[in-house]
TrEMBL record:
Keywords: Hydrolase. One of its GO terms (molecular function) is hydrolase activity. It comes from Cryobacterium cryoconiti. InterPro entries: AB_hydrolase_1, AB_hydrolase_fold, Sec-Metab_Biosynth_Hydrolase. The keyword Hydrolase applies. This is Alpha/beta hydrolase. Coiled coil: none annotated. Gene3D superfamilies: alpha/beta hydrolase. The keyword Hydrolase applies. Residues 3-225 form the AB hydrolase-1 domain.
Length: 237
């Protein structure tokens, strides 16, 4: 099966490198993406917004042979909003959407318009900007490695409003790999009708997998994340 991996903010395709081995070993074709503006620190990010990132994922779907069957989309953090936009654009081509410490972003929502900006960029902020649950298991060495590889995020990706059009997106099964917030906490939010999970609550088939760690499991628990994604893909198959 074809698996398209969409990184979260500040990260490129190589951020999945420790996660993909079990997927490849199982015979799947993996396609980790570097989204527009994330090619290099000195790349231009002017004019790149949420739609351009969604379109890049849609283009990756369209480049695959439909005869090979539907694809699985995996999105980490802000990548969850991006893959949800791609599900909306190509619901008939997606077998399952896997949200890694993330979830689907509904119509009119933004990923995070509170991050500090610098012109067209959202640089990786100082660690004290993040909440402690974000940073669980991200030790000093991992933080240094993350900061060394970080590329500024295009500003508009963080602040553009999600635009959705096809309610067939709710028929595409989803897996939520819950790290920073447990599945029990998400269930409580859904039961309370919290707007943060309103779009997730509308998906008809959702499974939850707990992987307790901070917000970057591809760095803090990569083997376990790879196994969790593989299990979700196997269920999709």
């Amino acid at each position: 099966m074809d698996i398209i991996l969409v990184p979260g903010f500040w990260l490129d395709s190589t951020s999945w490198s420790q996660v993909t081995p079990p997927l490849v070993a199982a015979g799947h074709r993996v396609h980790p993406l570097t989204l527009p503006g994330l090619e290099a620190v000195d790349a231009s990010r002017a004019g790149i917004g949420l739609r351009q990132h969604i379109d890049a994922v849609v283009a990756a779907i369209d480049a695959l042979d439909p005869l090979d069957g539907p694809v699985v989309l995996v999105g980490h953090s802000g990548g969850g909003a991006i893959i949800h936009g791609a599900v909306d654009a190509r619901p008939e081509r997606v077998q399952r959407a896997v949200y890694v410490d993330s979830g689907p972003l509904g119509e009119g929502g933004v990923i995070n318009d509170e991050l500090p900006v610098d012109g067209d960029d959202v640089p990786l902020p100082p660690w004290d900007v993040f909440d402690e649950p974000d940073l669980v298991d991200l030790d000093d060495d991992l933080r240094a490695a993350f900061r060394a590889r970080a590329v500024p995020q295009p500003r508009r990706v963080a602040s553009d409003r999600q635009q959705l059009h096809d309610e067939r997106r709710y028929d595409v099964p989803a897996t939520v790999i819950a790290c920073e917030f447990s599945s029990a906490m998400l269930a409580e939010l859904i039961a309370a009708g919290h707007p943060y999970v309103a779009e997730l609550a509308r998906i008809r088939d959702v499974e939850y997998v707990d992987l307790p760690t901070g917000h970057w499991p591809q760095f803090t628990r990569p083997a376990e994340l790879g196994a969790a994604i593989l299990a979700a893909v196997d269920r999709a198959a």
